[in-house]
Amino acid sequence: MPNAEHKRRAVFLDRDGTIAEEMGYANHLSRFTIFPFAARAIRRLNEARIAVIVVTNQSGVARGFFPESLVYEMHEKMKAELAAGGAHVEGVYYCPHIRDDNCDCRKPLPGMLERAAREHGLDLAASSLVSDRYDDIKMAHSVGASGILVLSGYGRGEYQWKKDGWARQPDHVVENLAEAVDVIMGDGR
Question: Which of 16, 123, 132, 136 is flagged as catalytic?
Fold first, then answer.
């Protein structure tokens, strides 16, 4: 594992509502649609040599809404569509559990971020997380990363109706992943 001065920064991306349209429980491959700007945005991060890691809760598996194999199929579709746009992700981490399972990987717990940091030699404090859910922003803050809330997916509603109750606000609030990458590329975080 790289020592601290050789660890890389990363951008962690939520899947649904950030890279792809939010569909609730996307229980069929045909319901999984990547945003048209996602590949271009991720390619910019790739070109800057910033690790891009997807972290997503997929409790539909534990709830019996769809088989775990569908999660793999969706991630393969996502990777293929990103590759067609000249982009790639270095890792995809997902939690198939519900809260009652008491796992350490379900967001907002930081298990997926910590595992990715170990496996990819990442510096969490130098990294950012982009998501349409405030729980994910809290997770980013819990490991010292910056949190960028996108208003796509559930983001607009979360921000409009819940922001006054948040103990700590997101570091940035932007329309979508493309604007989040503008922020990341502009300020280094």
Answer: 16
Q: How would residue 168 be classed by pLDDT, with cut points 50, 70 and 90?
A: very high
In the chain the domains, ranked by start, together with CATH numbers, are: 9-187 (3.40.50.1000)
| Catalytic residue status for 14 | yes
Q: How far apart are CA 66 and CA 31, in angstroms?
A: 13
What percent of the chain has a predicted confidence (pLDDT) above 90? 89
Average pLDDT, the chain: 94
Catalytic residue among 14, 123, 132, 171: 14
How many C-beta atoms lie closer than 10 Å to residue 59's C-beta?
16
Q: Is the dihedral of CA 8, 14, 15, 18 positive or negative?
A: negative
Q: What is the DSSP string of 23-44?
A: -SS--SGGG--B-TTHHHHHHH
Among candidate residues 95, 91, 106, the one with its CA nearest the CA of residue 13 = 91
Q: Are strands 10-13 and 51-57 parallel, antiparallel or unpaired?
A: parallel
- Whole-prediction pTM value? 0.94
Residue 103 pLDDT greater than 90, yes or no: yes
